[in-house]
Every structure is written in structure tokens, then in C-alpha cells.
Predict the structure.
Amino acid sequence: MLIDRTHRGWILATGALAVAAVALYVAAYRATPGGLTGGDPVGLLYGIAGSALMAFAGALSLHRRVPSWWWIGRRQTWLRGHVWLGLLSGVLILCHSAGRFGGPLEQFLMAVTLLVLGTGVLGLGLQFALPRLMTVRVTAEAPYDQIPHLCEALRRQCDKAVAEGAKGRLEGFYNDEVRPFLAARYGRESPLAHPLRAEALFDEMHRLIGRGADEPPEPLLRLLKVACEERRELGEQERLQFWLHSWLLVHVPLSAVLLVLGLVHAVMSLYY
Amino acid sequence: MPSEFRDPKNLADWIELDYFRRPQRLRRLWTPFVLVALLLSGGYVTYLFAAARRTAFQARPVSSAHAMFADNCSECHTQPFAPLARLWRGADHRSVPDEACLKCHRGDLHHATAVGERRCVSCHREHRGHAELTRVEDRHCTSCHADLQNFYQPRKPDDPPAPQCDPHVTAFLPGRHPDFRKRPDPGAIRFNHAVHLAEAGVLTVDVGQIEKQAEQAKKQGGRLYLDVGKGNKPAEKLGCHSCHQPDAAGEYMQPIRYEAHCKRCHPLTVQPIGAFDRRQEDLARDFAKPSLAHPAPHQSPDFVLAGVRDRLSRFIQAPNNKEAFLKGPPQPEPPRPIPGSARPAALARQEHEWVNHQQEEVTRLLFDGAGGCRYCHQETTDPRGRPGGVPAYAPSKILGRWQEHARFSHKSHRMIGCAECHPGAASSQATGDVLLPKMIRTCMECHSGTGGARSDCAACHLYHDPPARSRSRHLDGRPDRERRTLESITGRVAPKE
């Protein structure tokens, strides 16, 4: 998700709400001898508001499960609400805690809250930067989940071409270097994974199969070189897309823990 | 941009067209990751509750003073928590009622009419770590004392008058806190600090007092047998600590007592008065020896008279004394002692008359002479018309504690010389001189709020009424049977040895 000018309204509204919430809390804190705690009326209100915003942020994952509920709004809107109201919930929860992290359960909960907010901000940054980087580095983007399938297809095509026309050194070069490199699992340790070393390797092969430096390359060798370049780009796309989505493997489980423990905290606090 | 292998026309050869119907590669990991995270956190929380029991619910540990309660929450939390009820009942709606605190603590109020309904937990917030509960924030005080007139509303005719204190106190800073209130010294003891603290020291027996006693004895036709010229004159340099000794806690000074602090230099000399021959003089000198345990008891005049009469009676009943002072053979009374007990012998008529005469002389020496009781005490009766012939003296009223709404620890200030805070002591000559620091700036030199010594209100001031005005029962006054057992407090049974 790009943070562009369409987010301006959300940013301004969230910023204004955060400033107002902090200002109100500081005013109430200064007016209360001994300061406020999470159990004071003001602290409780901030806790309830922060928990409600967290629940809203957590409801994003449920939005996709009810696509027929068009009246609850577009997913894009929910995603923006998830980002900005989720950040606002952090401000409210910090006010609710009054800078004290309480007992063991509350300390654990606060650590999870900060981790969720941290991974969320990290993910937002990655989603802002990595797509631009991918546009520059990957000329022919493929669906991320289809990359293994693409690699297999690429290898099958090269297998067929080599079986039809290659012999001698070229066949050996294909079987030893190129074919393993085209596998679904990207071999970063292969010399073909590095553009300059791959170029040097193909030039060497061009010379070994008896072609002069001025002669055009053997068509099969050129096909293998292009296949390797394509695999390299797919490998790069795979790496960037892994970072683009892998933060969710931390963010989502921690968010689930946060919601469950937050519920435990609320129940225990209201009971005791 | 299409690659050399892939372009939109042959996309179906390269891409599985139904791939989007299957779960995405990374998203497939979400469920196991979420389950593992929930299991781990659930395990941690379960362990937490199992290991820490109820303390897992605590915001922070209780203060050190309440550590004995451990996890026996119901010792203080005797009412339902109902935290949501605070939203409409206010922050003071807590599960710890005042009664829970008053079980152990004295709960004297502080101008109840002024501050209205205040609960213990309004100021003393628990579960904030091992901090002192008595160390409340200044704003609890300045919320009223910054503008005190608006907070004192006597409700009943017998309510106390408005407190005589500065109505605008906002902090312990110059201009925001008043100086010490000028309070007259109520003491009724004639005392000269300058004489006692003289650089040259003081004599171990007050010659001035002895001379006045001798003068009075001479007026009465006798002479003083107390010999101050033999070994009683060495000078001794006194310091503040010679008389002012801290109590066991090191906070306040112990009361000045005649026996401990005055008697050595100011003996209450009594002696037979009269024109005696050499042998009688020797006996009279023995009577007046200051080394005797109680030359005259330092008690009320009635007690003094009784004590002196007892001594004179015993003195005259000694065989040698009878012969010397009564000039006649003793009239022995047939002894009829009760078996197992000694019975004092009754005075003979002559002895009785001698004792009466000497008591009159001694009374004049003690009560009328300038070196007697009035050397230090102020008589409140007219010397010409004393009721029953016995004078009355004003109570000493030597204050041990000058600021009853504040506390002070001399022990905490032991690194400072006495004269730093009591600069006028060495030159004070009048009894009425108040030797407290005149300006509170003396305190502010250290208690400045910039680190080091505390400068919050609770560092010096007491919120609750001082013990002298206590309206409720103090725990210390309870009989042992009303006190509690450790088991009832902690809820744990002590192991049997």
C-alpha cells in the first residue's frame, strides 16, 4: 500500500485525534493529584477507546470473509483505517497505561502491543519501498505463487531445446550449471545467479564451442542465457516479495495474541 | 514488460490459470504461526497465574509496609472492585474502604470541615511499587492550600476556627511558602543559654546560687555548710549536647529533666539552721552533703516538704544527733515491733518540736530564698499569702516539639552543626528567646527541590491530626487480646516447630 496524497485526510484526522487525546490526558493527569492510572475513570475511557480501535484494526482480516457485505465499506478504506486507527490505538493505550506497565500480564501485553505496532510500521515501510524497487529490478513480474511453476516450465522448455540440438560441451554445461539453476528452488550460490559471472561463463562457453569473438552466439546458447536471466529476475522478485509479505508472519500472530490477551486483561481488570 | 519467453499471448502456457483459487504460499503459514503464538502466550500466561497466583493481577507490588499481606488481597480489598462503576461514581469508588485501613492505622482527620469527604485511598495509592505510602504528591496539599479561604467552611457552631496558616502555599520555594510562624516560648523556667554555653565553661556547682542560699541562711541566723571550695569548682565547657540529647529514634530531643541535666550543678541544698557548736556543725554539714541521693526532692512543694520532714525526722532520731541537738537524754520507747516488719519509731515531743522548727527554717530557705526553688521556677502564688503556707509554681512547659503539624529528624541533620540552624543559642540570655531558625530559607538551602534533600510537603508536614489531638483509638493503646495474629493477617498457618 502506497502512502500517497489520498491518505492526507486520514493522516490529518489521526494526527489531530492523537494530539487532542494526549493533550486531554496530560491536562487530566496534571489536574489529578498523584496522577492517573489505567483504573481511573479517564484511564478506563482511554483503555476502552484504545481496545475498540484495536478490535477494529483486527477486524480487517474478517473483512475478506464477508465479501457480500458491501455496506460495510470498501477493503481499501478498511485497510487505511487499519493502519491509521491502529496507530491511534497505540497512542490511546499508552495514555491508558500512564507510562506504567503494571504487573507481569500487563508488561507482556504492552510488549506485544509495541511489537505489533512496530511490525505494522515496518510492514508499512516495506510496502511503500519494495514495490518501487521491484519495478526497477524486475522487468517481467510474475505472480509470486506461480514462480515455482514458471521455473519448472522454463526448465522443461530448455530441456526440450537441449535434447534437440545440443551435444558435447554445451550439453555438459547445461546439465552441470544451467539446469540446476533453473530449478524451483533458487540457487543463490550458483555463478549464474550473479550477472557478471554468468556473462563471463557464457562468453567462455561461446569460445569453447569454437565460435570466434565476432561471430553471433550459438542460438541454443543464447536461449540458455536468456533463460538464466529470466530465472535471475524471478529469483530477485521472489526475494523482494518474501520481504514484502514475510513481516505479516510476525504481525498477524502477534495481533491474534494481542487481541486474546487484551480480552483477558479487560476481563480480569473488570472483574478485579 | 513481457520477457522473451512470456507474453500475454502465451500466458496460459506459463501460468496456472486457477492459481488464485489456491491459498497463497506465505498466507498458508499464517494459521500455524497464529496457533503456535497463541499456544506459547497462553502457556506463558498460565504459568504466570500458576506461579505468581494473585500477584499476577497486581498492577505493581504493594508497598513495603504492606508486604506482610503477601497475596491475601481480601485483607484490604473488602468490597467489590467494580472498576466500571468508577465511570459514573468517580475515581474514589475503590474496593478498599477506609475501615480496612483503620483496622491498623489511626485515621485522624485533617480539618474535616475543610476538605470534606476524603478517603484514605484518595491520597495513599497502593500498588505503585515499594514507595512510601505516606509520601503523597504535593498537589494533594496545594489543591487546597494554594487558596485556602475557599476550602474552609465551618458547618457547625462548634467547628474549629479557620486555621492560622498562610492561605497561599504552592511549593517549598522562596515566596511560595511562609516562614516559620512566630510562636512565643511558653516555658516558665529561668534559663540563660549564654551563661551555660560560655567559652570559658561553667563551674560544676553554681556559686551564684550557693551564695544566695548562704545569704538566706545567714538571714535566718545560721550558716551554709555546703562547702563549694573543696573540689567543686573546676570549670566545665558545656555544649548543646550536654543537655539536649536525642530520643531513641534520633528525631526529637528528650525532655530536659532536673535530675539528669541540672542537679549536678544546681543541688537543692537543705540543712539544719541555727547557731551550732563545732560538733553540731559537723553533724549539720553531714546532713547538707550534696552527695546524698535526694537533698530535697525535685517535686511539687507538698512533696518537698514531706520529704524534708522525713529526712529531718530520721536525722534527729540518730543517737548522736539527739544528744547533740536536743541536749537531753533520749526517752526510749519500748520497742513493740510487729514480727517480720520494721516499724519507724514515733518522734518524742522534743524531737517533734525540733523537726517543726527546722522545717520552718528549711521552708524559708527553699521557698523564700533567692537560691531556692525560685532560682529557676516562677511562683504563681503571693509569698505573703500562700494557701497552707505552700507556694505554687508555674509548670515548666519546656517544649519538646515546636511545630506540631510538622515533623523533624535531628538524626537526619546530624552532619550539620547545631548553630547552623539555631544561630542565636550561644548568645541568648532571656528565657523567652525562641531559638528556632527564623527564616525558612535556612532549610531551603538544602531542601531546594533540585535534587538531594526532599522538598515535598510530606517531607515535613503531617496531614493527619497530631497524636495529642487524636480522636480515635490508637493501635498501640489496644490490649494484646484485641491485636491480631500473623495467621489472620497473612492467611497462612505458621509451621509448627
Summary: The mean pLDDT of chain A is 88. Chain A touches chain B through 53 residues (CB under 8 Å).
